[in-house]
Write a structure and sequence with these properties.
Blueprint (H helix, E strand, L loop, with lengths): L5 H9 L3 H15 L17 H5 L6 E7 L4 H11 L4 H9 L3 E7 L1 H13 L3 E4 L1
Helix pairs in contact: 4-5
Length: 127
C-alpha cells in the first residue's frame, strides 16, 4: 500500500461530511485503542505561584452590613438609596444585621456602597 502524505490525508478528510468524519474518528479510536480528546493544560503542583494563577480573579462582590452604628436613621437612608427597598424593608435590614445590602455587584459599585455606608456610621464588610 502506498504511503499517503499528510496533505493527501487532509485533502481526503476535506471531502468527508461531518458524520463520515465522526464515524472515522470512532473507528480510529477503536482500531488503535486511543481517545481523540483535547489536550488540557495542567499546572505543576509544586510550581511557585501556581496557586495564585489558578484562582480566578473575583469580579462579583457582596456588600454586607455588619452593624448600624449610632446613626441608624442615616444608615437606613443610605440603604434605601443603594437598593429599591421601602422604608420598612430598609429598617428591617438594618435591624437584622449582619445582612447583605448588595449581592454580586462589580468591585467599583461595592466599594462605593461601602464608602457611603461607612460615611453614614455603619460597619460594612465587602466579600
Amino acid at each position: 500500500m502506498a504511503k499517503l502524505s499528510q496533505e493527501d490525508l487532509l485533502a481526503q478528510f476535506e471531502e468527508l461530511t461531518l458524520i463520515e468524519l465522526s464515524e472515522f474518528v470512532k473507528a480510529f479510536e477503536e482500531k488503535f485503542d486511543v481517545t481523540a480528546a483535547a489536550a488540557v493544560a495542567v499546572a505543576a503542583p509544586g510550581a511557585p505561584g501556581a496557586a495564585a494563577e489558578a484562582a480566578p480573579e473575583q469580579d462579583e462582590f457582596d456588600v454586607i452590613l455588619t452593624g448600624a452604628g449610632e446613626k441608624k436613621i442615616q444608615v437606613i437612608k443610605v440603604v434605601r438609596e443603594l437598593t429599591s427597598l421601602g422604608l420598612k424593608e430598609a429598617k428591617d435590614l438594618v435591624d437584622g444585621t449582619p445582612k447583605p445590602v448588595l449581592e454580586k455587584v462589580a468591585k467599583e459599585a461595592a466599594d462605593k456602597a461601602a464608602e457611603s455606608l461607612k460615611a453614614a456610621g455603619a460597619s460594612v464588610e465587602v466579600k
